[in-house]
């Protein structure tokens, strides 16, 4: 634009110059020559002035463009750096869930576990940082193999929380509703038309088993046997009865069209990328398994407790899974953060915060806890709702002197 303006100005001056010459053609030749020089000087001066302004403007625009070009990559790099830093921190945190971590802040927790005669593996997270991840005592006393972050333990009834979430996944998929009567999916239950899936999740169905399953069976045979051997307590009253979750496992199989184990593996374990979590009997042949012991606190390894197939076969949906401390945190935190079901669905599922059992957990305002016992092994957790503080305890010592759930909650309350 400035260059075109320059051309127009020069054209005007040349035109004026021509007119001037024509109007003064009778003047002295020397005068005409001087007049020509003056006009040429004026035109060249204006041209230089305008050209200089054009060049200066171009230089300023070019410099501004260069500055912007320098600023944009800088801001981009800053964003990328922050993102990369967050990813790195998350990766470092996740890596610590699978290895030994002992810090000064975690020393008091290690000492407390030892003083309470705890044997097993423990994970302590405070303000989003792993301050202790390690073991106490032996996973295998005969070979002197110690408990640690990679040791496998059974989680017992903590599995009920997983079963409840698996039910809720089917609710979100539109395949069932919590207020459906159980008779819609399983036949032969006397009060099946009056008992909903929600009541079973909350242990308010009135269902109870009067004896233990006598032999190893397939999943649906286990369900049929349980229905045939149930007793019926008053409905609406809370009564902790594992048969509720065994029947829920049967509902899951009917609706999903595949085994309970396959449903949980595909839709929960694999989704959360859990590498150390699975179903028995796989744990029993794993080199990282923990063996179970019982005995007085003065001789905790006095008696080894073996596990017949029937023990875990009858725990369908209620207690036949295993994991590590790190994977158990990943599992529970994955559920809490909306990676398995939506947060609104989780809120519907865990609809109490007064510490009363619901959906496999004891939910409080600031945290929730879980507890399980099976085949002599014990598991207890206490985790804040944001996952920043957590206690995960897995034990292979069947001690009647230690209430593991109370210990987990007590240690959690000291995290601050």
Brief summary:
This protein has twelve helices and 17 strands. The chain is α+β, with helices and mostly antiparallel strands and 416 residues long.
Structure description:
The chain is α+β, with helices and mostly antiparallel strands and 416 residues long. The chain has two domains: 2-92; 97-413, Beta-lactamase (3-Layer(aba) Sandwich). Helices cover 45% and strands 16% of the residues. It has helices at 2-23, 29-96, 107-115, 159-172, 197-201, 219-228, 243-256, 260-269, 309-313, 325-336, 343-349, 404-413; strands at 101-102, 120-126, 129-136, 138-140, 145-146, 153-154, 207-209, 230-232, 278-279, 292-294, 303-305, 321-323, 357-358, 361-363, 367-374, 377-384, 390-395. It has an eight-stranded antiparallel beta sheet, with helices on both faces. A three-stranded antiparallel beta sheet has the order 6-12-9. The two termini are 69 Å apart.
Short descriptors:
transmembrane helix; Beta-lactamase; globular; three-stranded antiparallel beta sheet; 45% helix; alpha+beta; eight-stranded antiparallel beta sheet; 416 residues
Write the layout of secondary structure elements.
Blueprint: H1 2-23, H2 29-96, E1 101-102, H3 107-115, E2 120-126, E3 129-136, E4 138-140, E5 145-146, E6 153-154, H4 159-172, H5 197-201, E7 207-209, H6 219-228, E8 230-232, H7 243-256, H8 260-269, E9 278-279, E10 292-294, E11 303-305, H9 309-313, E12 321-323, H10 325-336, H11 343-349, E13 357-358, E14 361-363, E15 367-374, E16 377-384, E17 390-395, H12 404-413
Antiparallel strand pairs: 1-3, 2-3, 2-17, 4-5, 6-12, 7-8, 9-12, 10-11, 13-14, 14-15, 15-16, 16-17
